[in-house]
């Protein structure tokens, strides 16, 4: 069968925004790619699909599924058909993310100092006090340039109205950027001519941009500050990414045991003795960073690290305590933060969110659960999520009891039919739901966003869950003009 015939068999679901097709016609920004694909034979496309899998296998591009008893290491699924976003759409996304990060940084500075937003009752004080990731230990600490969120992965979805919505703010240790970069490298191998023909914007300079920001955060004015990447080790789900980024930036990859604190300064153990470390890009959660301050049984962190941080002798990226800003219950108030700190309307709207600690909201959600998705406020990776349209009665009764026992730990949102894009699955073009995680870097000179980001794909037919831990994959994201 020819590619043209496969494209004719591509059917979009009713009530869903498909990014390639509209009323049976190919959208303008997909024309060049579709034309190029039509010149290929299906067998050639299957060979390219197989080559992509082999490239991922040979590169060892993996992620970890902790709940999988069969074996935790998996090759990251990759779909070869690119997702295409126009330059005009990207400009809108970029402006919205920059605005959001500006407000979130101001919120974090405020919440760990004057707390004016609480005094003005824009956000309930009880919401912050009950947040498990509000870190009182860092109250009053001055961070370089008042930047708390240096690296973020803001999750966006596109609804059935074609508009982009912010789904989630990842402000602690966002992952996935290595997959974005590797996706592009694999695409270069399998479609070398299509990238140039479509004038796709480049993403390869992300490690350079990140390295420059890390260097700029060094607390002392020295010519060559030492930057390290602190990893929990080989059993972490994102360890591949840790090694990849350290290698790309040319910095040391260290574990907690490789660092030591002396006289409120952090040093790295080397064959030439101790070397002072000025900036730590940490991929360890707050509670494991320093056993003298947080979890006393943590073997992943560095004893005394927080004393060096408080003295300003080392910069931590991202800042400690950011979790209060990506709590899913606090997420509901980000539009209010934008209005409060910037006196602007949000460029990118939130998904409507119901705090289940509110009795009226809880009752409404319970009565309309078939149209709702319930999420834990401090879970990630798709864990602890209840899809109301597919949950069994037994599972719902169990989830309902958990919600009623601890309503602060849950929010609900209406189920939104994510937009679909074409995927090459089982030798056919099939629509699958996607989200988008652009990566933003915030430094002394402002916010820089790599043009594209990670498109995550729900590979199971009809599924709205895109997380890799729940069977999702990814594809290359093209920003074209």
From TrEMBL:
SUPFAM superfamilies: Glutathione synthetase ATP-binding domain-like. InterPro entries: ATP-dep_Glu-Cys_Ligase-2, CP_ATPgrasp_2, UCP005522. Residues 82-458 form the Circularly permuted ATP-grasp type domain. This is Uncharacterized conserved protein, circularly permuted ATPgrasp superfamily. It comes from Filimonas lacunae.
